[in-house]
Amino acid sequence: MEIHIDLTGTRGHRDAIYRQLRAAILAGRIRPGEALPPTRELAQRLAVSRTTVSAAYDRLTAEGFLAGRVGAGTFVTASPVERPSPVLDAPGVQPLPEWDAVPPPPAPFAPAPEFDFRPGVPDLSLFPFDTWRRLITQRLRAGQADLMTYGDPQGHAGLRAEIARHVGVSRDVRASAAQVVVTAGAQQTTDLVARVLLRPGDLAAVEDPGYPPPRLVLGARGIRVAPVPVDAAGIVVDAIPAGTRLVYVTPSHQYPLGLSMSLDRRLELLDWAERTDAVLVEDDYDSEFRYTGRPLEPLHSLDSRGRVVYVGSFSKVLSPALRLGFLVAPPSLVPALVKARYLTDWHAPNVEQAALAAFMAEGGFARHVRRMRKVYRARHELLTRALAAFDFLTPLPSSAGLHLSAVAAADCGPLVRAARRRGVRLYSLGDFGVGERRHGLVFGYGAVAAERIEPGLARLRALADGGAA
Ligand SMILES: Cc1ncc(COP(=O)(O)O)c(C=O)c1O
After folding, report:
1. Residue 19 exposure: Cα atoms within 13 Å on the Cβ side
2. Could you tell me which residue ranges the HTH gntR-type domain spans (predicted)?
3. pLDDT score at 85
4. Looking at the structure, do residues 74 and 174 belong to the same domain, yes or no?
5. CA-closest residue to ligand 1 atom 16
6. Would 427 disulfide with which of 129, 218, 396, 442, CB 3.0-4.6 Å?
7. What's the 207 CA to ligand 1 centre distance in angstroms?
């Protein structure tokens, strides 16, 4: 390989060769696996002694950038660890200050800890890999060119029809496919709804404690967000500030407390929305998994005045990596929401939408939900039983989803940190509060296998007994 090394005006030839080769490796101009010229050849080219070149190579070898293979030559080993950019130190263009308040995205979740009580993730080892592979392959093999062009921003028509059927049967949400918009997961819904209904400076409300992303999505759009307390019956409607235009709630399975909003509270909230001309975003993210009792009717089914946007997600039922969810909106909002989706990212991937539509149409989706419900019910029972032995925790009633919470008299932050150091990942209730920070723990049981629940809790208990609580 022809490496450019310039020794004009340099006195320490060995250092100059070393520095220029090192910089070329770090910048990726010479890549791992590439051979350097033999010392004799480079020495001749640069008109320096062979010892000078060998000394530079030796230093790079000692630092791990190069390795010699007997009879084969000298090769680059290291990947470039830095690629200096000429503008790295310049102040650069600054984002709007509202982005300072947005925390960085969570780090990728690998590697999994020994005991993973993280809330909100399904058991991905039970994802229907074979069926999914077949469904995707069938779509690709059929050579359907229409799946490879731009799709409908509202979502694949077949998938919207299946979603309308699914929510009608399982949740009594009565809607036609024309009211369904396929989204990139529940998180996108708050953004789309805010785009079409709110201006910067408008007021929205979220549950406190609550699921952080909707609060952050709204805040990043310049919308003022009021955290509103939650009691045993749900969001405290009397505490919603005057002038609120949108309220985001999780009535089936309050996140993170796990409680279900009472029927009276649902009716009170709907009545409030009607009186104040506000919209309710009802996030029904994990209600496919219900273990005891009859689910209460969603706000959407109780609403006769077109005030509710119902939100669903395939993240818990199938996998968050699909980035597929949906909303069911009042007909008055649909055209603007579809335009907002189009302007945001056009539409969800066509092949995955078509595969999901086929999965739902052939009954595989319903079977998968039934199978997973059984798995999670067993874990829910195990966890509930095991938590009864913790005298510093009072589990909150919860009969659905993939997590449950327990309250405590003191801050559980230190215990959570100690547990994480010992391979037990769980969250403190305080992590989800904005105003009043509740004491307690959130236990997810989607990612933890049944047989790991008791040993994981035993380790947690040992830490608590040892004074980490
Ligand atoms: C309350 C709540 N809503 C929605 C979601 C799912 O979001 P998405 O569909 O964007 O993956 C989660 C996931 O943790 C959640 O906890």
Report:
1. 8
2. 11-79
3. 59
4. no
5. 120
6. 442
7. 14
